[in-house]
Every structure is written in C-alpha cells, then in structure tokens.
Amino acid sequence: MTLLLLNEDELRQLITLPEAVEAIRAALLASAEGRLETPGGFSLDLPDVNGKVQVTGVHFSESPYFAVRIGSHYVDNPKAGLPVDSGLLAVFETATGLPAALMVDNGYLANLRVGAVGALVAEALANPRLEKVAVLGAGPQAYYQLKALLALRQPGVVWVWDSPPLAVDTFIRQLIEEHALDLRPAEGLPAVLQQADLVILTDIALPSPIRLDELKPGAHLTIVSAEPVARPRLEPALLSRADLLWADNPDRCRQQGELSHASDNLKADLQKLSDVIAGRLAGRTRPDQLSVTELVGLAAHDTALAALALDKALFFGLGQQIEAGLGQKGLTAGLEVRA
C-alpha cells in the first residue's frame, strides 16, 4: 500500500483558484442534491493550552475518495512564532477504505474553500454590474476572498480597510503585484460603504456596527465569520430590512455567527446557500434588493479540493510516496491460521 504525502507548498502548486471555484461549485451542487454525507464531527477542547481541535469527516456520493479533516486552533501559538491554525486532511479510497494520502495543508485548503464560496456568492447574489467593492480586513481571509472574486468578476475599484493602516498598505502592494487592479486604501469607512456594490466583511473588529443607511441600495454584504461572534458588527435594523438572507451553514450561523444576534423570525428565514447556487431557490430578483450572506465555513467541502489535489499530484508526480504496507493482519484477514 502506497500513501502519498503532500505539503502546503505542493498543494499551492496543484490547485489554481479558478479550479478551486469550480470544485466548490460542484460540491455545493452535490450538497443541494443530497449527495453529501456528513456524519458529524467532534471537537476536543484543550483549555490548559488555549487550544481546540476539530475533526470532521465527509463523503460525496460517487466520489472515489472520502476524507477526514483534523484542524487545530491554538490562540497562543504566535507567542512562539507559530501559526494559530494548522491541520491536515486524511484521504481514503471509498472502494477499499485504505488511506490514499495525507495532506498537511496548514489551513490552506480551508482558506481556498471559503474564498471560492465567497466568489460564488458574489456571482449568484450581487448585482451583475459590480463596479465598486469594499473589503474590510487585510488578512488571509480578505486575500483569498478577493483573489477568488477576481476569477469570476472584474470590479472597477476595490477599497481596503483595516486597522492598522500598515496592514492595508502591505495587502495592496501584494495584490497589485499579482493583478492589474485599481486597489485603494479606504480613508473613511462610511464613505466607502455608501459607494460599494459588494462589501466583504472578514473576521475583524469594527469601530462601530455597520448601519443600514451606510450601505448603498442594492448592495450585497458577505460576512466571513471564522470565529464565534460575541459582539455584533451589524445593527439590528440592517438585518431586519435585508431582502435576502443566506448562509453556507444556517444551523451554525444561528448558533454562533453574526446572524446569531438576529431575531428569531430572521433566523427562521435564513436560507441555505447551496440551494441558490444550484438554482433550486431564486436569488436576487431586483437590482435594489439588499442581500446578506454569512460564511462560517463548511469543512466538508475540503474533500472536493482534496480529491482534485490528489488526482493532479498523481498525474504530475508531486508529493512523497510512502510504502506503508498492509501488515500481517491485512494479508491474512479472513483466513484461519493453524499451528
């Protein structure tokens, strides 16, 4: 038995953002059609070290692979020069149950997946004429949201806001090197919000909640909530006046996302994003509608990216092949051995 080991650098070489967007689109369609098997996961809290480990498993029907994701979140890691988030994906053959690959992605596939979902949200729910975009945040989430968006839409101008401003300057310099894009630092948050056709709010704190009158009529707001939202970043009137409310994982959003602060009636109206991507439910029907989507993350969709990475790695010969063997019990399974 051969096991393929892939690290983060190799995964970055294997999957392009346009490929990731289409793989996640297929995963959302499979979810809407009931072809996604998610038995549920479990979490391991480690309060002594301020850490948490999350384990999830998933299989798409007819897929040759199923996967188990193990992700860790250690808040104090930066003190030792280590990243907060890390993890790996174990991929198995559906037909035999034998392990096929270990992918030490350190959260890269998760960032890719959330960025791809954000791009599909903009394609399905934002107005077709997307001239101005406001990105609130200048970290990895903002980077992948914007990079994936550019695979589907080409805005005229993108404003970036974060605190401190130095993070914004670094973010803009990096993106300008990679894309011919009009990127500008947002000098005033309210002024930018009032002009933006699309607002992408990443997992950052704001000086004050966003108000309804600060958004342009017909705007779409995408909220990325990787962590439980203790302090609301949207005023209640904004959510109550929204024409469309969507979520990638409605149950989780109701419990710990930005939308957990909404009224019970609004929580009941929350629609599943995969249904609009699949065309099962209508999205925007008028250009003046205010739409809001929250993304808390569906680790199940990492399987789609893992399958793509594994097939391409085998084709291009990337990764380290490890001969794991089957072991004596594997070779003699089902046989009676007598002395």
In brief:
The chain is of the alpha/beta class and 339 residues long.
Give the ordered list of helices and strands: EHHEEEEEEHEHEHEHEEHEHHEHEHEH
Basic shape: globular
Question: Helical percent range?
Answer: 25-40%
Low-confidence stretches: 331-339
The helix-and-strand class reads: alpha/beta
Would you tell me the overall average pLDDT? 88
Word description of this protein:
The protein is α/β, with parallel strands linked by helices. The protein is about 35% helix and about 25% strand. It is built from 12 helices and 16 strands. Strands 1, 2, 3, 4, 5, 6, 7 and 16 form an 8-stranded mixed β-sheet that branches. It has an 8-stranded parallel β-sheet with strand order 10-9-8-11-12-15-13-14. A hairpin with a 4-residue loop joins strand 3 (about 40-45) and strand 4 (about 50-60). The longest helix has 18 residues, at about 110-125. It is globular, with a radius of gyration of 21 Å. The two termini are about 30 Å apart. Residues about 330-339 have low confidence and may be disordered.
